[in-house]
Amino acid sequence: MAHLRFSFGTMGSGKSTVALQIHHNLANRQLYGLLLTTLDREGHQVTSRLGVAAPAIEVTPDLDLFALARDNWPIHYMICDEVQFYTPAQCEELSQVVDDLEVDVYAFGLLTDFRGKLFDGTKRMLELADEHSALQVEARCWCGARATHNARVVNGAVVYEGDTVVVGDTADSAQPLFGDSVRYELLCRNHFRRGELGT
C-alpha cells in the first residue's frame, strides 16, 4: 500500500539531503521515480548545503502533478522537495497519485514562513499526509537553543511583513549596490519574537 509522507523542518535541518538520499537509495534498487522541486536556490535541481545535487523537475503553479505521474507511468515513487511552495491543489494531486496510482510520495518542506505562519502547501500536506514528522537533525539558534523559526533579515533587521515568498539563503552576503540585502536566520521562538540576532 502506497503512502504520502511529509517531513518538515527549518532551513538547515537536512530536508533536501534526506530527499536526495532516498532518491539515491531507491534508484540503486532499480526503482524508477521522479524528483521534483520548486524555487531551489540552484534552479532545476535539488541541492543540499552539503554539496550534493541531482537534476529535478521544476514544479510551477500550473503543473498537474497527477498528470505528470500518470504520463511517466510506470513509476515507483515521487520525491517532492520544497512542498511548502506547492499549491494546495498540487498537494491534493499528490494524494491522488498515492491513492489512484499506488505510488509512494515523499514530500519535504518548511513548516512555517518568516512570520511564523504555516505555508499554504504545508497546511494542506499536514491535512492530507498519511504520515508527517519533524526531521531529527535539529538546527540551532545563535543562543544554542533548538531553532524553530526561519527569520527573514532585511538590511540587518528581522522583519515580520512582506511577500511570503522571497528566495534568500542563510549566509551573510555583502550589501548589494541597489536594493535590500535579504537573508534568513535560524532562531528559537524567544529570539524570533524579540527579533534578536545575537552578536
Provide the fold topology:
Blueprint: E1 4-8, H1 15-27, E2 33-37, E3 45-47, E4 53-55, E5 57-58, H2 65-71, E6 77-80, H3 88-101, E7 104-109, H4 120-128, E8 131-134, E9 149-154, E10 157-159, E11 182-187, H5 189-194
Parallel strand pairs: 1-7, 1-8, 2-5, 2-6, 6-7
Antiparallel strand pairs: 3-4, 9-10, 9-11
Keywords: ATP-binding, DNA synthesis, Kinase, Nucleotide-binding, Transferase
EC number: 2.7.1.21
Binding site for substrate: 184
Question: Could you tell me the number of beta strands?
Answer: 11
**Number of helical runs?**
5
Cross-sheet strand order for the largest sheet: 5-2-6-7-1-8
Query: What letter string, H or E per element, gives the SSE order?
Result: EHEEEEHEHEHEEEEH
Helix fraction bin: 10-25%
Question: What name is given to the CATH topology of the largest domain?
Answer: Rossmann fold
Compute the CA-based radius of gyration. 17 Å
**SS-based class:** alpha/beta
Biggest sheet character:
6 strands, parallel
Contiguous uncertain segments of 5+ residues = none
CATH class group of the largest domain: Alpha Beta
**What distance lies between the first and last C-alpha atoms, to the nearest angstrom?**
51 Å
CATH superfamily of the largest domain: P-loop containing nucleotide triphosphate hydrolases
**Portion in strands:** 15-25%
Shape summary: elongated
Mean pLDDT: 92
Q: How many domains make up the 3D coordinates?
A: 2
**CATH architecture heading of the largest domain:** 3-Layer(aba) Sandwich
